[in-house]
């Protein structure tokens, strides 16, 4: 009997050895519930604070506390090690405060027993606020001076000339003009609800997101709403669907990839951070960036996620997050770290705070598996990532300001970088990532990606989905960057 048990144990040994290990994660996160953009400055609400805190607590349970199979290798389970984290948010009170709220859930107060120290004179000092842990949020400067959450139209914040032109082209497309005319009567029908802020001239599809945001915030926070009887379930759904259509077309168009500049730069950031985790052998395991919903939409289009769910074709909910896990089945220890070929990437998305909405796996780039090898991930992301200043300036057609120095030197290589409006058809936009992630699958990865973040850091987002196929591959979309 014992020999049979031993044989069974031996047969299971390869399975035990092959247990997956999470080496690190990159989380891109939207802010929580906020006040309307109609009245600036916008601010994070208590509900929004709770949403991002709950999300942080969810990711703590998944990655940090050490009790789950998904816990990150070698992560500090209770007292934060700042060297293991890289947290960023644009210079914006809603996004910065959302990041802080998230971190309070990720690494909550540890109590005076753990958060105290004995001084040389023998006295003991306890940390304030029951061991509240101070975690810095790195400020990502935007190209524009406008606070992102206070702007209804944020593509200008990108500073990318060609992306702004591409976005504006949507307003001249047949699709836009048809929708504008067909919805005129619908928008006028809700004017009594919003006439303290919008006029009959501004109450049109052109302001679809601003109108939806104003009504959406009111339905969450206002006890009374003028002419509220007009806001039937069907009307609210229509307002949201039209806002989704408007914003998706501003964020992505398959025939004009520069419109998705937010997704291109985000892709470079993701590659850079995950490569840092690999080359550093998981010394920095968690990266979190708070940003705007347009970056989600742009990336969804570039990563070929649109056919998989309506979640990918409309404005994502408050506190939504997408996660990139670095995983391996190889042995990981202080003396043994997997090679690049032994590492894979898993993509997951939660529409709304992950504490209340399933964090679901999806396959990237039209692949069949939700887990793809790191070399394949690098190769596919490399097709659209833009991660250094010279490439960004060339793609955007910018020649002044921070791009002045690189405009001359980049002109000779512009043919390889690609003109701003260049396209290789749907899903195949191949824009150079000059000086970034080294050649192809070899992963001579990303050296200079972070300079661009300082240019583009202020992307944004908001709640929901719908509108499957809302012009994903047609017309002259537009890359509206909103929060």
UniProtKB/TrEMBL annotation:
GO function terms (MF aspect): phosphatase activity
Signal peptide: 1-18
Gene3D superfamilies: Phosphoglycerate mutase-like
Keyword Signal on entry: yes
Record flagged with keyword Disulfide bond: no
Superkingdom of origin: Eukaryota
Keyword list, A-Z: Membrane, Signal, Transmembrane, Transmembrane helix
Spans through the membrane: 432-456
Family to which this protein belongs: Belongs to the histidine acid phosphatase family.
Protein name, as recorded: Uncharacterized protein
């Amino acid at each position: 009997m014992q020999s049979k048990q031993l044989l069974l144990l031996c047969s299971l040994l390869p399975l035990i050895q092959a247990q997956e290990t999470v080496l690190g994660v990159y989380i891109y996160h939207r802010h929580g519930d906020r006040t309307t953009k109609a009245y600036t400055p916008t601010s994070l609400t208590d509900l929004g604070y709770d949403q991002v805190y709950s999300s942080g607590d969810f990711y703590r349970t998944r990655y940090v506390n050490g009790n789950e199979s998904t816990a990150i290798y070698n992560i500090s389970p209770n007292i934060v090690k700042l060297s293991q984290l890289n947290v960023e948010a644009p210079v914006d009170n809603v996004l910065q405060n959302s990041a802080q709220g998230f971190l309070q859930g990720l690494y909550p107060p540890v109590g005076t027993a753990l958060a105290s120290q004995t001084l040389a004179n023998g006295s003991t000092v306890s940390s304030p606020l029951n061991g509240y842990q101070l975690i810095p949020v790195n400020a990502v400067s935007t190209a524009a001076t406008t606070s992102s959450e206070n702007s209804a139209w944020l593509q200008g914040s990108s500073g990318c000339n060609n992306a702004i032109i591409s976005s504006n082209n949507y307003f001249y497309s047949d699709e836009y003009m048809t929708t504008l005319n067909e919805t005129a009567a619908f928008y006028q029908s809700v004017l009594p609800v919003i006439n303290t802020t919008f006029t009959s001239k501004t109450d049109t599809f052109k302001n679809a997101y601003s109108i939806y945001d104003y009504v959406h915030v009111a339905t969450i926070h206002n006890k009374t709403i003028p002419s509220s009887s007009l806001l039937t379930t069907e009307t609210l759904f229509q307002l949201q669907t039209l806002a989704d259509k408007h914003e998706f077309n501003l964020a992505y168009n398959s025939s004009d990839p520069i419109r998705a500049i937010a997704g291109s730069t985000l892709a470079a950031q993701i590659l850079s951070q995950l490569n840092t985790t690999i080359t550093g052998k998981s010394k920095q395991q968690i990266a979190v960036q708070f940003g705007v919903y347009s970056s989600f939409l742009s990336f969804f289009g570039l990563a070929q996620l649109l056919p998989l769910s309506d979640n990918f074709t409309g404005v994502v909910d408050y506190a939504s997050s997408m996660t990139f896990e670095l995983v391996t089945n190889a042995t990981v220890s202080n003396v043994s770290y997997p090679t690049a070929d032994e590492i894979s990437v898993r993509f997951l998305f939660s529409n709304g705070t992950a504490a209340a909405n399933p964090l679901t796996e999806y396959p990237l780039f039209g692949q069949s598996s939700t887990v793809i090898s790191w070399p394949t991930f690098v190769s596919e992301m490399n097709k659209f990532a833009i991660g250094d200043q010279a490439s960004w300036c060339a793609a955007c057609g910018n020649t002044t300001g921070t791009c002045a120095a690189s405009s001359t030197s980049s002109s000779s290589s512009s043919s390889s970088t690609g003109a701003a409006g260049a396209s290789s058809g749907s899903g195949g936009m191949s824009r150079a990532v000059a000086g970034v992630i080294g050649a192809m699958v070899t992963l001579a990865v990303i050296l200079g990606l972070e300079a661009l973040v300082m240019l583009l850091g202020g992307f944004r987002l908001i709640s929901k989905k719908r509108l499957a196929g809302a012009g994903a591959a047609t017309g002259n979309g537009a890359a509206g960057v909103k929060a």
